[in-house]
Design brief:
The chain is mainly alpha-helical. The protein is 70% helix and 0% strand. The chain has 2 domains: 30 residues, no CATH class; 197 residues, no CATH class. It is elongated, with a radius of gyration of 26 Å.
Amino acid sequence: MYYIKIKNFSLWLALPLIVSLLGCKQADLQQVASAIKNYQQPLDTQTVVSGLKQALEVGTNNSVQQSSAKGGFSDNPLIRIAVPQELNKTATTLRKYGLGSLVDKFELQMNRSAEKAAQQAGSVFISSISQMTISDAWGILKGQDNAATQYFKRTTESNLRQKFQPIIRQSMGQIGFYDDYRSLLKAYDRLPFTEKPNLDIENYIMQKSLDGLFTLVAKEEAKIRHNPAARVTELLKKVFAQS
């Protein structure tokens, strides 16, 4: 009589199901043994690290492509950069007096600057992924739904700020943002009973650019964790099926 020694008690519970799937009454013992061997096989460290790196590469690449495309910010309600709260009164007043086109142009230029800056995020993300430790990988795999996004915030935000700042400033200069911004404020100043707002507009665009980018990264992370269709490689399917 042939028998298979099973050390893991949980596999005894799964054995009837495996046998029935392979052919009810007379299942081939080799097939059963193979199925048992593959049943909930623990993930080894190398597989986890490789799978996590691949997942992060897929997610961040998608996020960068989406945000850096023309309209990537301006046409996406989730990350679109709107008039700063400090300028809400300014914008409302200008629209009231028929100067809404100045506000619309101002908003569009902020979003275009963010889209331009986002093009540089890919290399920063790749560098962060390459430096990911074994501890980081397990922490992300077993962590909360946004564990990977938080890892990126911790390891990339400073570098992204350094890269984004000159790009945003240059982009704003090229598209005439500063002249238009001054025109907007001058138009507002000419209206009765108004006071010029105090705002660091470059820093505002910078922060909104980063917030938007990380929002998309979080969205991609959630897709890979919860939507099997988003696991586009065998490695991703293997790692996240057991996470």
